TrEMBL record:
Belongs to the ABC transporter superfamily. Residues 673-901 form the ABC transporter domain. The keyword Nucleotide-binding applies. It comes from Blastococcus saxobsidens. This is ABC-2 type transport system ATP-binding protein.
């Protein structure tokens, strides 16, 4: 027995495999628990379960609260690839709330022995019952009867399915909270969104059992974690950790440090019993090499699916055995279902099916959607809110304490921002509805009809499915973000059908439906349906990066007489703004799925000729904490707004009378910002800015870089009209900028301090600021701006209680009110921690990707280099250089040259030496070219023109080196 305050967090992981496993191990939907209220005791034990060749030892840790009275228990199950340490923080939090908490490593994971059975009722579910027996013997655990502990079960993904199956097979379970998990592994890994839906719930999707499109990448990721990781560790050849004593390799959990005294055998290592069996049985050796810690039947099912890409009866039998779908009618434990809107593995339709199946016999069910999932982590505020949901559910159903959580429905307020921004902004407000639409009520799901149109279109499927379109990379939403959040559709491989530009916003909450006409030469087709948000500038956003696979058989081969197909699009939560277009895309390929080997040409059209109805699900409800503050503060805010409006009106009228009519530059829309010979001198003779000239193009993220005193802030204050330049002209969208200039309404800014009123809440500050602009409330895009703040419920608390970082985030949200065309931020990352800086970096890049322009002034060189596309370097009030980051970094310095053939080294040195300002020589790093004022492009062009094959040409310095050199030269 030992006493602890909180497990320490482990260091970062060095391998991509570790990253993938951490993504898949989504058992804990929380980041950091609150400070410990009291000491808690823990006990480690290895619990025997099963018998014969199926026997295993389950590694457990019991967390005991500081209490003299028996308490209800909670069993926490981890995600695939994790261990009991993955949920240690959650265990501490629940123990501090007075629960006895049992964590364990599932068989085949962590320190537990046995083979992975994918939550087989004969093995993993039986292990859970063994653990309930253990809890029933503890004096610290409250009992409902002899051998029957008062107990709840919670877990995410792999652990969430165990919670469902455990409640179905063991009636001692009193309450469950399954998170981001599956209803049917068959339909999750072999989906097909075709045919009629057998329910009128908001996210119901067809549960096609006979056939589907194989999720090749997701399945391969799972199998790799469970097999190769164990194999490498078992033979002592692990992929290596980070030197901190924690494990490395593909079975890394969420990084929670090992408890003191725990065994140091690497999690994922091949069990000793398998090694012994392999030594006696050659077939066992082959299984070990191929399957690692998986049971043989699961290994065989994966190999069959991977080779054929089809669902055989044998594969279906294995997957169905591990699916809650067939036993939901046995669950009597009140169930809180939590599912993510950013999840290409287990979409909202899986939770929808679970909700319907459990509620059918009267079991209480509540459904909560949140802005995260297997493809994207949620924010700190969002994960803390989910933690409170879990604790509140158990408080009511295990202790009969607190508020009744009810059986309603909660989902994040829809926004029109892209999936990348959605990941960053876990602070979206929550919409609360009285019930999950269509579940147990007489009212059907409300749907809005949107007309989409387009002619019949041929869709080519290439041989072998290559090249394939790219939507999302399983488990790696960050990679999609690195690509600018963009998807890739291959010309000729898709059909597109558009609505007219929307005259009012359309909020989609759930799975939309549309009817298509399809014909294929062989009577079979594999297609992928998607719902894009197309902006007025033509930019396309795929909400959540989600697609709906369509496995079509028995359809017409005659394009003149195609077969009508009902299609259910992916379940999403997204707002299509006014002026945007809803586009249904049907493509023949997707990189994440298995594709037909044969080439072909399909015909795709809308069911009603050149038009069809896109039926969009919508859900009413109230925004949580929508009131924000008392009526007194609302009245005070209105009065303050009226006073401020009067003052601004007087200022505006006076400025209007003094304003001279200025010339409007014809290229103003393409050049949102232009400085022309701008100088700012003060009366004491100090010149803050001297003859500054530069321009910024639409869609750029420009970094204004320079040491303290360089004139950056002065330049931004002149841009905003706060001070006047002594000489020169500043143009915003072609119009002269100055105090009171109307064009400033297109600019959002944050310069020198937040300016927030401490006695008002963050929301009231934003509302008051927007009211002062005199623009309509609907133009504020308030919810998008609040989402950027990411403060959750804190947005409705007084600002005086905020940390500096929280104030900074609200101020940035204030700058983004109205989604301005030009966003100007001075030191936006001050007061933010590294994760928040990373999130802000993605927000700014994605904002510019919509066609808007961002100006960032910062002294953090690394942030400028990673965030900005272009840079203006200033020193002593003057511009030193302007260009792209690559151009700035590549001016001068040295370049590392990699040659395809080392035999060309001497010739490359001679060629480079002939370029003015370039010398080249061999070094320990390889061939290095020193550039003395020469451009990298000139040196590279000389090599290519001379026939020297180059496969690497990279600068050896970073922006910091270039900056120091440039400033030093000034």
């Amino acid at each position: 027995m030992r006493s602890l305050r909180r497990p320490a967090r482990a260091g970062g992981r060095a391998t991509l495999a570790a990253l993938l496993a951490a993504v898949v191990s989504s058992a804990a939907l929380v980041l950091a628990p609150p400070a410990a209220a009291a000491d808690i005791r823990t006990e480690d034990a290895r619990v025997p379960s099963g018998s014969g060749r199926d026997a295993a030892e389950i590694d457990t840790t019991l967390y005991l609260p500081d209490s003299d009275e028996p308490a209800p228990a909670v069993v926490l199950a981890h995600g695939f690839g994790g261990s009991k340490r993955s949920v240690a923080d959650d265990a501490v939090d629940l123990a501090e709330r007075g629960y006895v908490v049992l964590t364990f490593s599932a068989r085949g994971f962590g320190e537990s022995t046995g083979q992975i059975g994918l939550n087989d009722p004969r093995f993993e579910v039986e292990d859970l019952s063994t653990l309930l027996d253990l809890l029933a013997e503890r004096d610290e655990v409250q009992l409902d009867g002899d051998g029957d502990p008062r107990v709840g079960v919670a877990g995410g993904s792999y652990g969430g399915a165990l919670a469902l199956l455990g409640a179905a097979y063991d009636d001692r379970v009193d309450a469950i909270v399954p998170q981001i998990t599956w209803n049917s592994l068959t339909t999750a890994l072999f989906p097909s969104h075709t045919g009629d839906v057998d329910a009128d719930t908001v996210a119901a999707t067809p549960q096609t059992q006979g056939a589907g499109v194989y999720k090749r990448l997701w399945a391969g990721l799972f199998f790799g974690i469970g097999s190769s990781g164990g194999l490498l560790d078992g033979f002592g050849g692990g992929t290596g950790g980070d030197g901190d004593g924690d494990e490395g390799g593909p079975t890394v959990d969420d990084g929670t440090a090992a408890a003191p005294g725990a065994s140091q055998r690497r999690p994922g290592a091949v069990p000793a019993e398998l090694l012994e069996r392999a030594a006696q049985d050659p077939q066992a050796v082959e299984q070990l090499l191929t399957c690692g810690r998986f049971r043989a039947e699961i290994c065989a099912a994966y190999q069959t699916a991977a080779e054929s890409g089809t669902l055989t009866p044998e594969v279906a039998a294995v997957l169905d055995r591990s699916s809650p779908a067939g036993v939901l009618d046995r669950i009597e434990a009140p169930t809180l279902l939590i599912q993510g809107t950013q999840d290409s593995l287990f979409g909202l339709g899986q939770a929808d099916a679970n909700a319907r199946g459990i509620a059918a016999d009267g079991t209480p069910v509540k459904v909560v959607w949140f802005g995260g999932g297997h493809d994207a982590s949620s924010s700190e505020s969002q994960t803390q809110a989910l933690r409170e949901q879990v604790a509140g559910w158990f408080d009511w159903h295990l202790r009969e304490q607190g508020e009744d959580p009810g059986t309603g429905f909660e989902y994040p307020a829809p926004t029109g921002l892209g999936s990348t921004l959605g990941r960053v902004q876990g602070g979206n407000r929550t919409i609360v509805a009285e019930q999950y639409p269509g579940l147990g009520g007489d009212e059907p799901t409300a749907r809005r009809d949107v007309r989409v149109s387009g002619p019949l279109q041929p869709v080519v499927t290439p041989a072998g499915g290559t090249p394939a379109s790219l939507t999302t990379v399983p488990g790696l939403g960050a990679l999609t973000a690195a690509l600018g959040g963009m998807t890739l559709e291959i010309p000729g491989q898709y059909a597109a059908f558009d609505s007219t530009p929307l005259e009012q916003p359309v909020e989609v909450v759930g799975a939309a439906t549309v009817d298509l006409l399809v014909a294929a030469p062989e009577g079979e087709a594999t297609l992928f349906a998607k719902l894009y948000d197309v902006g007025p500038d033509g930019s396309m956003t795929l909400p959540g990066g989600l697609v709906a696979p369509l496995a079509l058989t028995g359809i017409s081969a005659d394009p003149t007489s195609p077969t009508q197909v009902s299609v259910t699009l992916p379940g999403i939560v997204h707002r299509f703004e006014t002026g945007h277009t809803m586009r249904v895309v049907v493509s023949s390929t997707d990189q994440a799925f298995a594709l037909p080997a044969e080439a072909g040409v399909y015909s795709v059209a809308l069911a009603d000729g050149d038009a069809a109805v896109l039926a969009v699900p919508q859900v009413g409800g109230e925004a949580e904490n929508a009131a924000g503050s008392s009526r007194w503060w609302v009245l005070l805010g209105v009065l303050a707004a009226l006073g401020l409006l009067g003052w601004l009106a007087a200022r505006w009228w006076g400025a209007r009378r003094r304003r001279q009519v200025s010339h409007v530059q014809p290229d103003g829309e393409d050049v949102p910002l232009r400085f022309e010979g701008v100088t700012k001198a003060y009366k004491d003779g100090f010149v803050a800015v001297k003859d500054l000239s530069f321009e910024v193009r639409r869609g750029q993220v420009l970094g204004l870089l320079g040491p303290n005193g360089a004139g950056k802030t002065t330049s931004l204050r002149m841009l905003m009209g706060l001070i006047k330049p002594t000489e020169g002209r500043i143009s915003i969208f072609g119009h002269a900028a100055g105090p009171g200039a109307p064009v400033l309404s297109r600019l959002g800014s944050f310069v020198e301090g937040t300016g927030l009123q401490p006695h008002l809440s963050g929301r009231d500050n934003l509302t008051l600021y927007w009211a002062a602009t005199g623009r309509p409330p609907e133009d504020a895009h308030m919810e998008e701006a609040i989402a950027v703040a990411g403060l959750g419920a804190a947005i409705d608390r007084p600002v005086r209680r905020y940390s500096q970082g929280m104030r900074q985030r609200v101020a940035i949200a204030q700058a983004m009110l109205g989604l301005p065309d030009l966003l100007v931020l001075d030191e936006p990352t001050n007061g933010l921690d590294p994760p928040q800086i990373h999130a802000m970096r993605e927000v700014l890049r994605d904002y510019a990707a919509t066609g808007r322009t961002v100006i960032v002034s910062s002294h953090l060189l690394s942030e400028i280099e990673q965030t900005c596309s272009h840079v203006v370097v200033m020193a002593r009030g003057q511009k030193i250089v302007q260009g792209t980051v690559d151009e700035i970094v590549g001016t001068g310095g040295s370049v590392l040259v990699g040659l395809t053939d080392d035999a060309d080294t001497d010739r490359a040195i001679a060629v480079l030496g002939a370029v003015p300002g370039v010398t080249a020589a061999r070094t320990d790093e390889g061939l290095v070219a020193e550039l003395d004022g020469a451009r990298r492009s000139d040196a590279l062009q000389a090599l290519v023109s001379s026939g020297v094959a180059v496969d690497q040409f990279t600068p050896r310095r970073r922006l910091e080196d270039a900056f120091l050199a440039l400033v030093g030269e000034s």
